[in-house]
Design brief:
binds aspartic acid; 8-stranded mixed beta sheet; globular; 384 residues; 18% strand; alpha+beta; 2 domains
């Protein structure tokens, strides 16, 4: 029964042009046609493992040294991953995570985060948190100081305040201005609208005539971005932890929660098996319990990259592999196993910029580097 249903799943989910990815799954070389240039220095997923190991989405490249230092000194894997993502949460220039994250439609930054600690089989999570920037540490505090797993909204903020977390305005001037430009474009009332001859002048004044900033604002207004950092680590003893932290989807309805704080979707650890995380359109991940799916595939013997592709196949299957529908979003899965083998998969070949290959960050002892995500579809795509 199990064999039959797995086979049926493979046959349905790998239909159409996803065949290229199927070829990778079964160990064959991909046909050519690489229209998207590869990043320089990008390496491939590890075939053999190395410990200690820490990986994250590409936006964590500069933060993995911190986590690796902790692992090398024999520190706890959860402390390592939280320390790494805290650097990104603190960074006002990363507008997908923590301080400076793009806000909801009312201009409030709302953050989501989760943690899982493999050795003690514990988890913690927070969602829709306002005014506290280090929500991965807040999720860790939920895990360590309460007998709950998840606290949301104002309750999470008040819990954080009681635990000594500083409250602050999470909107930077930069993200506030992009929000204002979004309001001007999407609202009849926050003038001038897109149909107004003053639109260009209004936006130019908002960004001090900086063409690059204007182009960026126009892009994120037209294509509300998602962005997140999942980070996972295995130490030299084989103990594993993970965290995922995000400001979620830009311009979301207040209270919208994505996959990042959902244990088993945006973050999943089993100390006997490995860890998994995700970035991109969280709703699609929640519907397939992606993190849990990847862990279960690795438990059955799949290497991380194949387990990630299997989860991706389930998302594609939900849309009957219709590339037009799937092209309305992008999503990535990242995983490592207990032996220190790592891998990641992206629905489309490109990363945030359509011209670049999707990549993730890896540090296995010497220095942090980018590794290539295996793509489910061969072409560039995915609105974000
Ligand atoms: N997955 C996150 C969410 O849906 C956003 C992202 O990763 O970009 O909230």
């Amino acid at each position: 029964m199990e064999l039959w249903s797995r086979r049926k799943f493979f046959l349905t989910s790998l239909a159409g042009t996803a065949i290229a990815s199927a070829n990778k799954l079964f160990g064959r070389t991909m046909p050519g046609g690489d229209s998207v240039p590869a990043l320089a220095n990008i390496t491939s997923a590890a075939a053999t493992g190395k410990r200690p190991l820490i990986i994250s989405s590409a936006n964590g490249l500069h933060a993995l040294d911190k986590g690796m230092d902790i692992l090398k000194k024999g520190g706890d894997t959860l402390d390592a991953v939280v320390a790494a993502v805290t650097i990104v949460e603190d960074d006002p220039n990363d507008d997908s995570v923590g301080y400076g994250g793009l806000p909801n439609e009312e201009g409030e930054v709302e953050l989501d985060a989760s943690v899982m600690h493999g050795p003690t089989h514990r988890a913690g999570s927070v969602a829709g948190v306002r005014r506290i920037k280090n929500v991965s540490r807040l999720a860790q505090t939920v895990m360590e100081k309460t007998n709950h797993v998840m606290i949301v909204g104002d309750g999470a903020r008040r819990f954080g305040a009681a635990e000594g977390f500083e409250e602050m305005n999470l909107l930077t001037e930069h993200s506030r201005k992009i929000w204002l430009a979004w309001k001007a474009k999407s609202s009849m009332n926050w003038r001038p609208g897109i149909d107004s001859p003053e639109w260009k002048e209004y936006v130019s004044a908002l960004f001090g005539n900086d063409e690059e900033k204007i182009a960026y604002a126009e892009r994120v207004i037209a294509h509300p971005p998602t962005g997140t950092i999942p980070c996972m680590a295995v130490d030299s003893n084989g103990d594993i932890s993970a965290t995922t932290t995000t400001s979620g989807l830009a311009w979301k309805i207040p209270g919208r929660v994505g996959d990042s704080p959902i244990i088993g979707a945006g973050c999943c650890v089993d100390n006997e098996v490995g860890a998994a995380g995700s970035t991109g359109k969280g709703e699609e991940n929640i519907k397939i319990s992606g993190g849990h799916t990847i862990i279960e595939m690795m438990r059955k013997g799949m290497v991380p990259v194949d387990a990630c592709l299997e989860a991706m196949g389930r998302i594609a299957h939900n849309y009957k592999n219709d590339k037009k529908k799937l092209g309305t979003f992008h999503i990535y899965f990242y995983a490592l196993n207990k032996d220190g083998v790592h891998g990641a998969a992206s629905l489309w070949r490109n990363g945030y910029e359509k011209s670049k290959r999707a990549a993730y960050a890896v540090h296995d002892g010497s220095e942090a580097r980018l590794a290539e995500c295996r793509s489910y579809f061969d072409e560039a795509g995915g609105d974000q």
